[in-house]
């Protein structure tokens, strides 16, 4: 992992922490959960409290939603190297929003079909 990637990871996790703090402050929780990073060869695990928030692919910087404690979901939610995808994929409890263009187009088509049938 390069120094550039380490700096981007720190910056991304800080943004996740700020979003989580804002969410928990609205709900007036006493303790805001803290984000931590666990490094491994293939994936970097982002933990919040005792839960998995998401993964970062150490080889290419893809932001991945957690499927299980040990493994990420199949498709990338964003990229560490594309900052415009960061805020779009940060959820309150996980990396949950898919910001890939092809999926956004499919969802628009589905919404237009469903909207017309109602």
Mean pLDDT: 79
H/E element sequence = HEEEEEHH
Can you list the strand order of the major beta sheet? 1-2-3-4-5
Rg (C-alpha, Å): 16 Å
First CA to last CA: what distance? Answer: 50 Å
Major sheet, described briefly? 5 strands, antiparallel
Integer tally of domains: 1
Shape: globular
Number of helices: 3
Percent of residues in β-strands = 25-35%
SS-based class: alpha+beta
Percent in helix: 25-40%
Low-confidence stretches: none
**Number of E-state strands:** 5
Topology:
Layout (H helix, E strand, L loop, with lengths): L2 H24 L8 E5 L3 E6 L2 E7 L4 E5 L5 E8 L6 H4 L11 H17 L1
Antiparallel strand pairs: 1-2, 2-3, 3-4, 4-5
Textual characterization of the structure:
- This protein has 118 residues and is α+β, with helices and mostly antiparallel strands.
- It has one domain.
- The chain is built from three helices and five strands; from the N terminus they run αβββββαα.
- The protein has a five-stranded antiparallel beta sheet with strand order 1-2-3-4-5.
- Strand 3 and strand 4 form a beta hairpin.
- The longest helix is centred in the first third of the chain and has 24 residues, at 3-26.
- The model has no long low-confidence stretch (mean pLDDT 79).
Give a quick set of tags describing it:
globular; about 40% helix; alpha+beta; about 120 residues
Short note summarizing the structure:
The protein has about 120 residues and is of the alpha+beta class. The chain has one domain.
């Amino acid at each position: 992992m390069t120094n550039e990637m380490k700096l981007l990871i720190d910056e991304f996790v800080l943004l996740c922490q700020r979003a989580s703090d804002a969410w928990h402050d609205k709900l007036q929780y006493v303790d805001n959960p803290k984000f931590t990073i666990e490094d491994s060869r293939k994936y970097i695990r982002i933990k919040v409290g005792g839960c998995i928030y998401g993964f970062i692919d150490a080889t290419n910087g893809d932001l991945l939603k957690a499927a299980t404690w040990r493994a990420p979901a199949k498709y990338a939610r964003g990229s560490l190297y594309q900052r415009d995808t960061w805020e779009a994929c940060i959820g309150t409890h996980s990396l949950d929003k898919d910001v890939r263009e092809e999926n956004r187009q499919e969802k628009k088509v589905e919404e237009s079909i469903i909207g017309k049938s109602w």
